[in-house]
Design brief:
By secondary structure, this protein is α/β, with parallel strands linked by helices. It has 11 helices and 13 strands. The chain has a domain of about 190 residues: NAD(P)-binding Rossmann-like Domain (Rossmann fold), CATH 3.40.50.720.
Amino acid sequence: MDLVTGASGYIGGLLVDRLSTEGRPVRAAVRDPARLAPREGVEAVRLDLVSGEGLVEALDGCETAYYLVHSMERTDSRDGDFAARDRTAARNFVAAATAAGVRRAVYLGGIAPPRGTRPSRHMASRLEVEDILLNGLADSVAFRASIVIGAHSDSFRILVRLVERLRMLPFPTWRRNRTAAIDERDAIEFLARAPAVRAAAGRSLDIAGPDVLSYGEMIRRIAELMGVGRLPVGFGSGQTPAAAAVVAAVTGRPVELVRPLMESLATDLLPRDGSAAELFGLRPRTFSRAVEHALADWERAEPLAAR
């Protein structure tokens, strides 16, 4: 039995579909099971990792537990900030998994900035959760990815909405920073294969596509694939809060989500090496293929005004 926490989220939902299609029994853990559509071979259970409610029942009989929970919502006085909630949730999870005899968690976090560079609050929290899981559960696997390209990826949807709605795109100096985005299909394949790859146990692995692009180049490539022309306009350094407010207003996404995502772009976010693809026998798709697939998937559900 595979446990998938965060099963109602973007990556969690795709993973549940992938595992159930393969015929693997899945327990999908969410705060509200009513949000999950019934699937054959999928058991929906209630789970709140911050309070610990439902943890014992969720982990019972599981061999692998996918940890796909992140806190990005607004801070309030009851729960504390998102980093505190993530820390509490991860520690609760490790304690309960240890008691249940579950030795392997599979986690998806973010690629770390270069050595000597201070990570954003968002990234620091992801790395802290990774450490808690790897140190607490001996056979765990932690994947790190930057932007995941998919129709329902928050980061990708923000970029597409900007291209769709603005002729001139406001970007701070980090528009020149580089990353290697990954196709959602490849990210899900890494996650799905993780329990069977024994050599991955206890490791942190960067997963990425083959194309290293600056954020400005990514915007231009997305615009080209959408068939429109757009111009990134540079802001001076230190203007991320202002840019985040503009981006949130244009895209209709909460500024509490947009700001920490943009703060994470202040440096290059590049994979340490290509060992994950070699270890898992995968050849990740190019950026253009990933974007074309994501746009086609998007347009099956709703039209894009710029296309």
